[in-house]
TrEMBL record:
It comes from Terrabacter terrae. This is Dienelactone hydrolase family protein. Transmembrane segments: none annotated. The keyword DNA repair does not apply. GO terms for molecular function: hydrolase activity.
Length: 236
């Protein structure tokens, strides 16, 4: 079951997509989008999480820019990158935090709450986790980040103690291998943090709508993600 919902923020009502599992209840997961918005790919992953027993919400993080539909077309990458350049990053972090609070307040959520982010959303998820901890709010119960594009500028300045899993390709066109290894060394110095790398995998290797999709790495990373979530956010 999926529906459109809105989430109260300091700047107004943020649109989001909401999924319930077959049981109607379970732990919660906030899914954070790539630069293309809450695309068909993001919705497919969210639906898979719901089918696995999670209550899932995917906020439209570009809503303050007036964009609440997926970025599509031949110039989607350029459009998405332009939107990120216009985005107020800290406002996006607080909007993500408002989404966590909203999800925790839902009656359908009967366990902890985690976050799963891809690319732009992977870095946002890491900053979200650090923000919740530094503000004294309840920390995330789990964080999964796929090739977090902002992590090169965040990993050595923000600390996250929530259990976290990070995926990186070693042929990433945007995050070179040396940078991936620096991020890995920094993150794994923190407790309960795992970094998985994939030889030959490019950026966005999980997105089966993109030319960078790597089916083998995608399948392996998703299996690792689900195992991690089952341990940290068990479904009753």
């Amino acid at each position: 079951m999926t529906e459109n919902v809105t989430i109260a923020t300091v700047a107004g009502e943020m649109p989001a997509r909401f999924w319930l599992p077959p049981t109607g209840h379970g732990p919660g997961i906030v899914v954070l989008q790539e630069i293309f918005g809450v695309s068909d790919y993001i919705q497919r992953r969210a639906a898979q999480l719901a089918e696995a027993g999670y209550v899932v919400v995917a906020p439209e993080i570009f809503w303050r820019l007036g964009v609440t539909e997926p970025v599509e077309g031949d110039d989607a990458l350029q459009q998405g990158m332009a939107l990120v350049q216009r985005l107020d990053w800290q406002a996006a972090v607080t909007d993500a935090a408002a989404t966590v609070e909203w999800l925790r307040g839902r009656d359908e959520v009967t366990g902890g709450v985690g976050a799963l982010g891809f690319c732009f959303g992977g870095g946002l998820g890491y900053n979200l986790a650090a923000h919740l901890e530094s503000d004294g709010d309840a920390p995330l119960d789990a964080l999964v980040s796929y090739y977090g594009s902002a992590l090169p500028g965040l990993h050595d300045s923000l600390t996250v103690t929530a259990p976290s899993l990070h995926h990186f390709g070693l042929a990433d066109s945007f995050i070179d291998t040396e940078t991936v290894r620096r991020i890995e060394a920094s993150l794994t110095a923190q407790p309960d943090t795992v970094v998985e790398t994939y030889a030959g995998a490019d950026h966005a290797f999980d997105n089966d709508d993109m030319q960078w999709h790597d089916p083998t790495s995608s399948t392996l990373a998703w299996a690792t993600t689900m195992e991690f979530l089952r341990e940290r956010l068990p479904v009753a």
